[in-house]
Amino acid sequence: MRGIERMVDEERYCIEILTQIGVVTTALESLAQKLLEDHANHCVANAIASGDREQAEAKTRELLDAVQRFSRTRLSSGRALHVRVGPVNGRHLDRFLIARAAPA
User: Fold this and answer.
1) What are phi and psi of 98, to 5 degrees?
2) If you write DSSP's letter for every residue of 6-39 in order, what string do you get?
């Protein structure tokens, strides 16, 4: 962010700034996707495997809330979000949220 702010302060060419914003946005989205996957594969999967129904429901609800928050920022981009949970009982559970491009 500081680099982009510096570019604006230095009155760099607009397209260069927009390109950098796109790079940062993509990197943050990639990081968020990885964090969601790690949370699903570790925290949620462990809660389900523990047999503690209350803990499993809480972690699942937490994951779904996080996916909804993350997907709200992506809905207008027309991208798909894939979350893989598992392994749970030897199986992976795949979930897809396919976002359509916002109408013009």
Assistant:
1) -105, 115
2) HHHHTT--HHHHHHHHHHHHHHHHHHHHHHHHHI
Residue 101 pLDDT: 39
- Structure tokens belonging to residue 25: 């946005």
Backbone angles phi, psi at 10, to 5 degrees: -85, 0
CB 7 within 8 A of CB 20: yes
Per-residue pLDDT of 28-76, as tens digits, reads 888 988 999 999 999 999 999 999 999 999 999 999 998 888 877 665 5
Tell the residue number behind the tokens 């790690």, with chain if given.
38
Distance, in Å, from the CA atom of 52 to the CA atom of 56, rounded to the nearest integer, reads 6
Under 8 Å between Cβ of 48 and 63: no
pLDDT at 91: 57
Comparison of pLDDT for 68 and 99, the residue scoring more = 68
Fold of the domain built from segment(s) 2-98: Methane Monooxygenase Hydroxylase; Chain G, domain 1 (1.20.58)
